[in-house]
Design a protein that fits this description.
This protein is an all-beta fold. 0% of the residues lie in helices and 49% in strands. Strands 2, 4, 5, 6, 9, 10 and 11 form a 7-stranded mixed sheet that branches. Strands 1-3-8-7 form a 4-stranded antiparallel sheet, with no helix packed on it.
Length: 123
């Protein structure tokens, strides 16, 4: 049974930093690409970042230079370090697995999803 459990979301002030985590079980973690997506009220779920099994990364334009995705295969965990946070970054952040390993931007490339963690950025 595949499980993805996100954690670390909280209320933070604009300009601040936060790291969210996603712990996976039930998969051969090291062979999957992992992605982070977010969903805010009134918007569709959108791609944030991805990391392939080989460590290559892919970012949405709106987070380049501010967010960093990383993975720890020994801990079966993927992280999203978020710096210089803005109110428009407020959303539920989800992690997802990509068995094909490409780490693309489309939600349809991803197999399993976590339940999400709420990140709120106050102005």
């Amino acid at each position: 049974q595949v499980q993805l459990v996100e954690s670390g979301g909280e209320l933070v002030q604009a300009g601040g930093s936060l790291r969210v985590s996603c712990a996976a079980s039930g998969i051969t973690f090291s062979s999957y690409a992992l992605g982070w997506f977010r969903h805010s009220t009134g918007k569709q779920r959108e791609f944030v970042a991805a990391v392939t099994s080989g460590g290559s990364t892919n970012y949405a334009d709106f987070v380049k230079g501010r967010f960093t995705i990383s993975r720890d295969n020994a801990k079966n965990t993927v992280y999203l370090q978020m710096n210089s946070l803005k109110p428009e970054d407020t959303a539920v952040y989800y992690c997802a697995t990509d068995r094909a390993g490409w780490g693309k931007k489309s939600i349809y490339e991803y197999d399993y999803w976590g339940q999400g963690t709420q990140v709120t950025v106050s102005s």
